[in-house]
């Protein structure tokens, strides 16, 4: 009997041991690619990419990555498929998963991707939901390790919205043994039930962003208004005005602290240009690493451990 299929819907879906393997594997796969070494473990395999929200990095990284592994992709959006015409998710999952080998979905509610996965014959990957963005945190932690070594025992400062990125950082902290210092405007904090954190032990809440950043090894933020919340834009601009990562905030972090942002960024809103374009910022490595870690993820989900 073949082993049960694995999905990647939340950061919680893998263990610390599996993450250690994935980070090592991502480094190997990245080296092969940089050396122009052909590596086609997914020849003849197809990945479906379903987008119900806009994307640049997620689309390019999955699409380029899948081709580099010898496979191919099918790209679907709500507007150009039956997904936007109320075909039940269960039916779409049954049909699509009979024709492809893995499915990546970017959508609104986490419940949609969970329903899809429950009716899929193949692995389903979360390419961002309102609640989580596990592939991004996979890339962020891989980037941290490349620059500074293990993230265990370190402190990550989260400045801004208690959103999908923040929730995923909290799950990662529990699994990988680091601490997140969270500072959000009032009314935009973490909802533990949504974040699905087990103990609450991986994070501390600070009213003031400066206190959250003090002594941090990594400072990170995200847009004030995530996709799907555009109607709240004006209200959020006012509420978040003091939650901008600027040079003063970076100064209270450790001198060797890194800055990360999943992108796209709004300079002058959640981050100042001199921070995101400054020497502590690793945002371009972070973006590139989406592709390398997702190649390791696809290999793991479809082929299991290969070494
Ligand atoms: N960071 C990220 O997921 O970017 P896209 O929205 O461009 O895919
Ligand atoms: N929190 C942002 C991340 C974009 C990659 C959003 O959901 O829009």
Give a quick rundown of the structure.
The protein is α/β, with parallel strands linked by helices.
- Spell out the helices and strands N to C: HEHEHEHEHEHEHEHEHHEHH
- Number of helices in the DSSP assignment: 12
Net shape: globular
Task: List the uncertain runs.
Answer: none
Strand percentage: 5-15%
The major beta sheet can be summarized as:
5 strands, parallel
Mean pLDDT: 97
> Span between N and C termini?
22 Å
Ligand kinds: phosphoric acid mono(formamide)ester, norvaline
Share of helix, binned = 40-55%
Structural class: alpha/beta
- Radius of gyration over all CA atoms, rounded: 19 Å
Total E-strand runs: 9
- Widest beta sheet: strand line-up: 7-6-5-8-9
Report what the structure shows:
Helices cover 41% and strands 13% of the residues. With 307 residues, it is α/β, with parallel strands linked by helices. A 5-stranded parallel β-sheet has the order 7-6-5-8-9. Helix 2 (57-68) packs across helix 12 and helix 3 (89-99) packs across helix 4 (110-118). It starts with 15 loop residues before the first helix and ends with a helix. The model has no long low-confidence stretch (mean pLDDT 97). The structure holds phosphoric acid mono(formamide)ester and norvaline.
What labels would you give this structure?
12 helices, binds phosphoric acid mono(formamide)ester, globular, about 300 residues, binds norvaline
Describe how the helices and strands are arranged.
Layout: H1 16-34, E1 46-51, H2 57-68, E2 72-77, H3 89-99, E3 102-106, H4 110-118, E4 124-126, H5 134-148, E5 155-159, H6 164-176, E6 179-183, H7 192-195, E7 203-205, H8 209-213, E8 218-221, H9 233-239, H10 247-252, E9 258-261, H11 273-276, H12 283-303
Parallel strand pairs: 1-2, 1-3, 3-4, 5-6, 5-8, 6-7, 8-9
Helix pairs in contact: 1-12, 2-12, 3-4, 5-12
Bound molecules: phosphoric acid mono(formamide)ester and norvaline.
Norvaline is lined by residues 128, 163-165, 222-223, 226-227, 262.
